[in-house]
Design brief:
Elements lengths: L6 H9 L19 E2 L12 E4 L4 E3 L10 E6 L6 H15 L9 E6 L6 H15 L8 E5 L2 H11 L1 E2 L1 E3 L4 E3 L3 E5 L5 E6 L5 H12 L6 H9 E4 L4 E4 L1 H36 L1
């Protein structure tokens, strides 16, 4: 069975400063092919067929078109370190959220190892659902396996560059989570091994174009924007100033309206007297 001994790669990933999370080193040719080529705005092929953790062969579109954004991860289930760290990171973020997979958003994890079985997918799913510990989310996070051609097709669409190192019997791949719109368009790439709950929440709001969440959530999204250098959402000063101006006008208008009403009542009382 394929294994990924990735202690060196994790160190490289943790110290990486490039915004896209690219891993390139001249001293280790085995890592040169690892990269993420962002294709934001493009659609992924939803007709690709995978086998889910329940043993059902289904096209990807089964989990799209429901009015919910989708968190997608590419990993493999017997990876001893990096994949587990990525899945742990997104699971921790989702656990801390008020929203639930299957209600406000959908989660999908696809194995990049074509030799893995749906039993492995089911076992991995069981452990993560137990960790998140939220009721009725069985359909909200699906773990899937597939044929090599389908795996490469979805990876190419996402710009996820990985490869198998035959002499070490390993997969080399980047650490990234994809956020897609409900119709399968790539909305956001989230890099690293940990994902702030606020960043995940805002990326889902962004991908849903404000269709999920509360009016306050949409107001918060208006005040933030994604900064590739910071690898997260940061306050957008221009929008904050605009919002502050609107609030100032509303407060001043309300104050003037109160004064006008009071003056009108006083004049009416004076005429009556």
């Amino acid at each position: 069975m394929i294994r990924f001994s990735c202690s060196v790669f994790v160190l490289l990933q943790l110290t990486l400063s490039a915004a896209r999370g690219q891993v390139v080193t001249e001293n280790d040719p085995a890592l040169r092919g690892i990269d993420v080529e962002e294709h934001a705005g493009r659609w992924v092929p939803l007709d690709l067929v995978f086998t889910n953790d329940a043993g059902e062969q289904v096209p990807l579109r089964t989990y799209f078109g429901r009015g919910k954004p989708v968190i997608l991860t590419l990993a493999y289930y017997e990876c001893p370190m990096l994949c587990t760290l990525v899945l742990n990171g997104i699971a921790e973020s989702v656990k801390a959220m008020e929203w639930k997979p299957g209600e406000q958003f959908q989660m999908l994890t696809l194995s990049i190892d074509p030799t893995e079985t749906r039993e492995l997918a089911a076992a991995k799913k069981k452990s993560y659902l137990e960790y998140i510990s939220k009721p009725s989310i069985d359909e909200g996070w699906r773990f899937m396996v597939g044929q090599d051609s389908s795996i490469h097709a979805i990876a190419d669409a996402l710009g996820f560059k990985y490869y198998y190192i035959r002499e070490r019997d390993e997969f080399a791949h980047p650490a990234v989570v994809f956020v897609l719109t409900e119709d399968g368009r790539i909305s956001r790439y989230l890099y690293g091994l940990q994902y702030k709950t606020q960043d995940v929440r805002l990326s889902l709001l962004e991908a849903s174009e404000g269709r999920i969440g509360t009016p306050m959530d949409r107001l918060i999204l208006y005040c933030f924007h994604y900064d590739p250098q910071a690898r997260g959402y940061v306050l957008f000063a221009q929008n904050v100033m605009k919002l502050g101006g609107v609030v100032t006008v509303l407060v001043l208008g309300s104050f003037l309206f109160v004064l006008w009403r009071r003056d009108r009542r006083n004049r009416t009382a004076g005429r009556a007297a």
